[in-house]
Amino acid sequence: MGQEEEEAVRGKLEQLKQVLAEVEDLEMATAVLYWDQQTQMPRGGAAARADQVTTLRRLAHEKFTSPEVGELLDALADHERALPYDSDDASILRVTRREYSHATKLPRDLVVEMSRAAAEAYHKWVDARQAKDFGIFVSSLERIVTLSREKAQALGYENEPLDALIDLSEPGFGAAELDRLFAELRETLVPLAKAIGERSDRVSDALFRQRFDVEKQLEMGRAAVRAIGFNLDDRGRQALSVHPFSISFTPDDTRITTRVNEQWLGPSLFGLLHEAGHGTYMQGIPVRYRRTPLHNGASSGLHESQSRLWENYVGRSRAFWRFFLPVAKAFFPGQLGRATVDEVYAAANIVKPSLIRVEADEVTYNLHIMIRFELEREVFAGRLAVADLPAAWNAKFQAYLGITPPDDLVGVLQDIHWTQSFGGSFQSYTIGNVASVALCRRALADHLGMEDEWAKGDFSGLLTWMQDNVHAHGAKYKPNELLLKVTGEELTPRPYLEHIKAKYTEIYRL
Amino acid sequence: MGQEEEEAVRGKLEQLKQVLAEVEDLEMATAVLYWDQQTQMPRGGAAARADQVTTLRRLAHEKFTSPEVGELLDALADHERALPYDSDDASILRVTRREYSHATKLPRDLVVEMSRAAAEAYHKWVDARQAKDFGIFVSSLERIVTLSREKAQALGYENEPLDALIDLSEPGFGAAELDRLFAELRETLVPLAKAIGERSDRVSDALFRQRFDVEKQLEMGRAAVRAIGFNLDDRGRQALSVHPFSISFTPDDTRITTRVNEQWLGPSLFGLLHEAGHGTYMQGIPVRYRRTPLHNGASSGLHESQSRLWENYVGRSRAFWRFFLPVAKAFFPGQLGRATVDEVYAAANIVKPSLIRVEADEVTYNLHIMIRFELEREVFAGRLAVADLPAAWNAKFQAYLGITPPDDLVGVLQDIHWTQSFGGSFQSYTIGNVASVALCRRALADHLGMEDEWAKGDFSGLLTWMQDNVHAHGAKYKPNELLLKVTGEELTPRPYLEHIKAKYTEIYRL
């Protein structure tokens, strides 16, 4: 390449980066608006906020899908091929190309109609929940299914429509592969849950089910969050919200929310560890990726791997409680003063087949996801009608968990996800659970004696490992690329199942 | 006009309103980002926030100053002339035309340079304050003066450059007119302050200078704010910030902040009444003005009239304390339990020549503003060099208030305003003070017995009057247009001076 040509390429790359930077500014501003809406906004602010968000989203979408971006990507294709795959610039171009392709394949009318249908479906879903009657939601959900199918057609897929939707949140994954994953999980988890059910008297969580002062719960939760290394001071914030979430506007401004149950210590403590886990990922992404498409996690599932890591692998470990029980006793001497590490470890790991996904334990959680995934696949394949979802839902709950929801509210109507899109979101929870153990086991092998450090309240070894091996790459790699690079193999349930089986065999003395 | 022509006009008006709506969405989103920055953002968020705000502002500016807007305004000029002056559509077109003219007159390079120079001046100002040395700030301030002069040239003016800057915040006002206003104020206020100074032993504010629990101060402040009718629940919020401010994203989402001094009740209580006063204006603007340029107050000064009204005319009235002293006693029985209405009324109205504007009382406040206004005018006229500002400042303080600042920090360096622009902002405080009394006197005349209502904690008569006569018009009228319409005369210091003279003659038994 001549010097002039090189300069032209550099100029085009800068031009593209400038557009991407402005798109991110708009997206991050929208995120601030969302944070404010969930944590501070008075009810009266809703109408204006909807206008603001609509305008910001539209401007970001227009800017990102402009022909200018397509032309720049075309002009930079040779340059991209000449760069090392994992260089920043090649990765920016590759991820931009993928997202541009998604964004431009969706017809504007379909996007508008999706958004309209989702708003309607949300209201019908709320009504249906109030009446505990799925019937009220059926026609709205049918519309969402139809539009989700159209979306899949527009995006294109190799084997089945669901692949297109899965690929949006888990680039590279397909439905058939996930089906095999769930089959392996089912084979171990269904009998394990059953065996535990027969020994349910061996563990009690009464310790966590006492009255705990709300302010003290928050202080204790923040102590845990700080201990694992989430920066809550210079680079982070915590607030209350109805539905806990984490959000980030830059690695240096990452925020988490929680809710508190005065009668149960679990939601605030493990909820904060969960959101702070997401938060460590966001805080760990290099600041130089800011205002590029690399300023993101590898996928929703990989993001969930970090939240599950800290919530479950660490937060529900014996080593963690060796460190944290004295801290917890200082906050709640009356409730926990006489508790032993074994007691609190058992209480943190109680397994109970339950109806509600978000309250599910480590053993049964993936079964909740599997049920949803199987139902989505059957509906997409035309083997199941939307109207028949409640019966199919209940039958699967009976088959896998041995319980049947008494009504649709605690059954098929429990999740908000299907009001937005049918298919493509639930699988990420299971990918996260499974990946969290694969990654953590690799970290433990690389850094021996790590659990002894946890028992002393030192989590920096694990956090640094995750920062170096996972967070440092931002969105450079697809989830399986990253797992292969870091653990030596693509996603496999083996480490997860080994861990769960060993852990609960001991706890429940199976 | 034929039917087709009418439809074309309607279409163009809708097109313009759509642009204006999107501009406001961007501006309001920027305002949410500001609120977050001041009340929640961790330090690490600053760099990304600056990027977000810059992008949003640039998009709003580009959209508003696009040739499309100019063409639509031209095309709608006849339509505007045919409409009644105070109709919504004529007013939207008129205010848009004025703002479009301002925005397009300023060369892009000047705007960029202003913003760069302001950022630098801010840092130099901080350094100068730390060193208590104006010298450090001189060359930055000279640059701000030069650019402010260029700005005035670009905007255009009739008599003197300062007029152009004043017109930005107080449409229709000019420097000569304000000079006359200050002369009238000076004539009464300087001797009044002097007479009070000779009787300073007659009033003490020791009652307010005790230890007051921070949380209780906030609760009491919110009780006061709710009492005067600011909606803090469905349509408002309150938070802490270093510098108190009020902000609104829609009339239905209006927020105020405060700071608390544990050793002094004044800042939180009167500060909250002040910001809530601004807030009532914002909450009182008709929701139908949202996403138009009418979604605003008539001017900075008129806005200040509402904050001063509630902070001073009401909050420092005997009637208010008849109602509020029992409330305050319930919060602070130890500190205020034995206080009488007369004692607390006197404490709330102590007058003390002081160095700091934001701590100044009702009598001396306008002298602080006058000093700044006179200095700005002298610098603009070339009669005073920037380097000589400290000496001139100190001389004026001695002349008007009888005190001399011991250093620049509590003298010429105290305000942030000159880091942003030289000229055009301070006058609004005095316009606000003066207008607050003119408006309130009119309301008292229209609605007899109002002060008896205040003594019972009922402020709805006054609030409703302000809503009907001031807030309801949003930014439709220029400040003097509105005052003339509502009080029967343009801004005059007479009611203000009568009120202040009578009030303090009684309090200090002059």
Question: Can you put this structure into words, describing what you see?
Answer:
Two copies of one chain form a homodimer. With 510 residues, chain A is mainly α. Chain A has a domain at 3-105. The first copy, chain A, has 22 helices and three strands. Chain A has a three-stranded mixed β-sheet with strand order 1-3-2, sandwiched between helices. In chain A, strand 2 and strand 3 (253-258) form a beta hairpin. Chain A is globular, with a radius of gyration of 23 Å. The first copy, chain A, starts with a helix and ends with a helix. The mean pLDDT of chain A is 96. At the A-B interface, helix 1, helix 2 and strand 1 of A face helix 1, helix 2 and strand 1 of B.
Q: What's the helix count of chain A? A: 22
Strand content of chain A: under 5%
Outline of chain A, from the CA principal axes? Answer: globular
Q: What kind of sheet is the major sheet of chain A?
A: 3 strands, mixed
pLDDT averaged over residues of chain A: 96
Reading side by side through the largest sheet of chain A, how are the strands ordered?
1-3-2
Order of helices and strands of chain A: HHHHHHHHHHEEEHHHHHHHHHHHH
What's the quaternary structure here?
homodimer
